Amino acid sequence: MQTALVTGAAGFIGSHLVDELLDRGWTVRGLDDLSSGDPENLKVARQSEAFTFVEGDVRNRGTVNKALGDADAVFHQAALASVPSSFEDPLSATTRNCTGTATVIDAAADCGVESVIVASSASVYGSGGTLPKSEDHPVNPESPYAASKYYTENVALQIGDREGICVSALRYFNVFGPRQDPDGEYAAVIPKFINLLLQDEQPVIFGDGEQSRDFVFVDDVVTANIQAAKESNSGVFNIARGSTVTINKLVAVINKTLDRDIEPVHEDPRPGDIRHSVADISKANKSIGFEPDTSFTEGIERTVEWFRSQ
User: Fold this and answer.
1) Catalytic, out of 145, 150, 151, 172
2) 4-41, pLDDT tens digit by residue?
3) What is 3-176+216-240's CATH topology?
């Protein structure tokens, strides 16, 4: 039986990863400081004898050592994950993401962990350049958040190479699904829009709405993490669907799913937001067997169903 440490275990992606690992027979150790994660996300996991939870900060080496135990693999999902908030508090974004990652990877090396999967972000590519974005596309971080994610990739890969650990850095594009936080100033666009439209309120689009994103359902992201640990191929990999949806189209699909017809409000674009984003996922397909199974429309339907049940 394999043992995994999942950092950010109470978060959106981390909690789904915990559940899937447990379903596959893993022993799972979760670490989260609960600064943004929701303990309710671990309600099912806590019922399993194969799950242990440690509350604490990934920047604290003692806490990380305690959480690691005898883990074979680490899925490092903990992060401050917001472009706008990283402009308001760049120090916090830097220490949480950079110091946290260095602490986790160094501790994993000392504990003999075999593989580390690091959550990175498509924001490292920035705007401009060619589309779709492949992993060898030049990076151009345009926010403190993006810069911190590029650092986390590099420090993880460097320590992994030095210590003989397989490190896979997964560049997530726009992940969505159940449990994603709809509240707060910096909530991700899909849960925020669903929540507003459920209340018959107008969603706000920053810009003309023709900016596009490569949305990928959370279940596919979880599968990518587990495949990366299984295949043990070090490197950087795009995790996305490989297709785009404009924000205007997103609102239309959610409206249709909810049987609504509510027009959005347009405001000025936000600094640091890129215009278009779409991934080339051929490397992930070839190296770790990643193949997204969930269509955008199906993902929206499943996400809406979850929000309606809350």
Assistant:
1) 145
2) 999 999 999 999 999 999 999 999 999 999 999 999 99
3) Rossmann fold (3.40.50)
